[in-house]
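Course assignment 3, question 2. Fill in each field.
Student: A.L.
Task: Predict the tertiary structure for the chain below.
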Amino acid sequence: MQLEGHGREDILSGLDVSRTIGWFTSMYPVVLEAKPDQTIADAIKGTKEMLRRVPNKGIGYGILKYMTAAEPSGQHVHPEISLNYLGQIDQEVTTELFGPSTYDMGRQASPDSEAVYKLNLSGLVQQNRFILSCSYCASEYEEQTIQQFMALLKGKFNPSSLIA
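Answer field:
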């Protein structure tokens, strides 16, 4: 799975990016392990523990990938699934001047663009609710399969299981 983050984590002491606009997107692959008898809550807990061990929250992966020698034969990693957890949106942007928009954003990409991932999940916590959206490659998945997948996930996550 490809994980995506905003890259604004506090990993370098003395570096203040609070006056910098935008994100420093970091993307890195991870292998998730799920056991057949494991509950979703246990899988989330195990995944959170594994992700805490990722150095610098994955920020250095892109540098290593593109600035080092070619990967050994057969070692190329291109995940089919992407997960972008945006965090607690309303706590990060709500001020007297700024807040989340109530307007629909519309399309974020052209319908003619080629999908980078077969399954793309994006989640955030807003007003103490976890919101998960999904886009997928229609040539890889049937709409009914995705609807069943999202229904399976509904109610399985809550903000306290995702934060920290």
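Instructor remarks: The mean pLDDT is 81. The chain has two domains: 1-8+21-77, 80-92+112-163.
Grade: pending
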